[in-house]
# Entry
Amino acid sequence: MITDRTYFFKTNLPFFISFAIVLLPQVILAQGGIFDTVKATFKHSKIAGGSAAVIRNGLLLCSLNYGYSDIEQQKPILAGTTFNIMSLSKNFIACSVMQLVNKKQINLDEPVTHYISNLPKKYDSVKVYQMLNHSSGVPDYVHVSGYMQQANKKQSPLELLSTILNYPLEFTPGTKSSYSNSNYILLGLMVENVSHETLGDYLRKNIFAPLDMEHTYLDDGLATDLNKAKGYALQNGQLIYQPPLDPSQYWAAGGIVSTVNDLILYNKALKSGRIVPLYILTQMMMATKLEDGSYGDYGFGFELMQTPGLEIAGNTGAGLGYNAAYINFLKDSITVIVLTNTSNGNSATIAKKIHDILVPDKKSAVRDPQDRLDSIVSKVFRSAVKGNSDPQNFENAETYEKFKQNAVAFIQQQGGLLSLEQNGQKVNPESIVRRYKINFEHNSTIWVIIFSKGEKIIAANHM
# Structure
């Protein structure tokens, strides 16, 4: 493990000068436990390498680096090591949209067709805010049958969406909440059309450069980054190199590359109102009310999850070779950033364990591994790996057919099922919403699964 202590003291100098008497004991008491926890959790997760940062009440408690960016060359993870941050990218895209909203250049209540021409007529009903909070009904392009067979192609954003644009919307916009990467591809196009800049240039000029995020960029596949960690996956107990997809396949949905130190700068600027005004940040972290009076699980660029005693707003990201988390435990003023170069790196689990050592009286509830709903999910996904699916586990034939058509082929491509982790739930009057990280041989994936009171699956959405 390598710790970046120079960065730690440099970043926190104002705090040590002004508040040393109050905060120093807190840092001394907490830091040893945090370092030990992260190191042990990284090791237990059997990752190639990772970087982590822990922030409380605006104070950086620790930042550290662990393991290897290149196992074959025994190259260690350093403070300047860059990682694909995957869906953490969506937070940056949402902030870009909200900057333009603040400048009156985008209206959240306008349809997407106001900003992007040549979309099908049905997209007249999709509003900007519904794409930000995943209540749009726009299908997810990564769920299209055969997607992985062409995922090494370089494609423009509209080429990437060409198949799903011909599909009907999955539901009437505003009536449900369902995560779709396609939403953020469309939002990226909006930023380009409104700003008259490429998305990479907009991000660099309006977020990365002003915050001195010198090692952060939107990957276009052209630049050579010698500091970038190679991606791996744990397969049959061995860490295996994962050749990357063409970066155009992620783009605005997950194409940003960054370091833990740059994300520390980003978090500080976000919380101080430098990126968007604080009232807009508050709006971004609020769940949107759906037409039936219930609330979705997403804000604008933030995943939201209410667990016992906790309020969480953040992002997780997983893809070939990388796994990342940026999680804000709002009630406890704790932010944890975890970047790993391993598909099944369990970054969200690491973040929760760090929270638990800082706030031991608020530990996340430990679930019985034989929990009935968890058992149903395990059974459904183990069957899907084999190309099968049992309709008895689903609420109705329509839900069953949708899962069979949209998810089974995708699940089969991930290899054998290794484990599943339940990362929170929300109990509604007529349903239970659970969020799972499901670890396969080739990848780790995030799912939101909705159950009826009769313990049947109403929806299973890949994030």
Observations:
- Confidence is low (pLDDT under 50) at residues 14-29, 364-370.
- The two ends are 31 Å apart (CA to CA).
